[in-house]
Amino acid sequence: MTSFLKLPFPPAGVARDVVLYLTGMADNHAGDAVYEKQINHVFSDSGWLVLAVSTGKGKVTAGSQIYTVKQGDLLIVPLDKKLGYTSELCFSCALLGGDLTQRYLTAVTERLGVQFHINLHNSVAGMLRRIYNSIELGAAVDGYWGCEKAFALLMEISALADKEESIKIPLLVDQAVELIRTQYAYLSGIEELADRLGVSKHHLIREFSEYIGTPPGRYLSEVRLENAKLLLQTGKYTLETVADMVGFAGANYFCKVFKKAFGMTPTEYAQSTAHRRPNGDVDKLEQMFYL
Fold first, then answer.
1. Distance, CA of 71 to CA of 286 (rounded, Å)
2. Residues 180 and 53 placed together within one structural domain of the fold
3. Are 240 and 199 in contact (CB under 8 A)?
4. Confidence of residue 43 (pLDDT cuts 50, 70, 90)
5. Using CB atoms within 10 A of its CB, is residue 84 exposed (0-12), middle (13-18) or buried (19+)?
6. Cα-flanking dihedrals φ and ψ of residue 215, to 5°?
7. Which helix (H) or strand (E) holds 13?
8. For residue 136, what are the CA distances in angstroms to 25, 146, 229, 268, 291?
9. 3-state secondary structure (DSSP) of residue 23
10. How many domains does the chain have?
11. pTM for the whole thing?
């Protein structure tokens, strides 16, 4: 399921050189239909789409252009009124506007192209996820907040171009990311992850942190929390069950980590999302545990 969250437009008198119109996230699910999101009501002029693919392979339609994308791709393209995508894709995105946005992103795409493979979990992809999560969880946001986040995102994208982060990720790190994303519920910790990969814990932490930008232990916790949110949205499971399903050592520890990450308890989050359909492929997640 995909969710797009619109932000308030900056108040009159506020510089609008860089504006965050909306943010969105899509979780992969079965099927191959093309979904289209009409967004011409959000703004009057053209904007820029920044989209990071976390899993899957498929197509993205931006205006009249069609792009074939896969896991680890970053797409930075002008967007005019329409966004389409194939449903097997999981991505996070933002729609930006303003003169400064136009200048910065034109310069970046002239250097790197509109589509390139990156360290998926670098600061750009992470910032897209955090912006979406902040709005979804009810953070106090307004036009000023949107401008601030849009400018910060532009700076991260510019830094990405300067650092040429499109370099190939080492196989070890790629394998570690894949194991975490597919085996998070069963991994006892980073020691086991290092053993599976045949390297020392110290070497894994050093390599992973250098290329992903966060230690593997923190990344493992983030993946567990992402999936815990999906399970909480169903309203079907106790906290003890959710903690066990995603790999946390007990409900108390799970609640502590969840509140530190999102500023609310798992129970409060479940209550705040009770009126929504669950995001993501919950059926697939439940099948992991034969539920």
1. 23
2. no
3. no
4. very low
5. middle
6. -65, 155
7. none
8. 10, 14, 11, 13, 27
9. strand
10. 2
11. 0.60
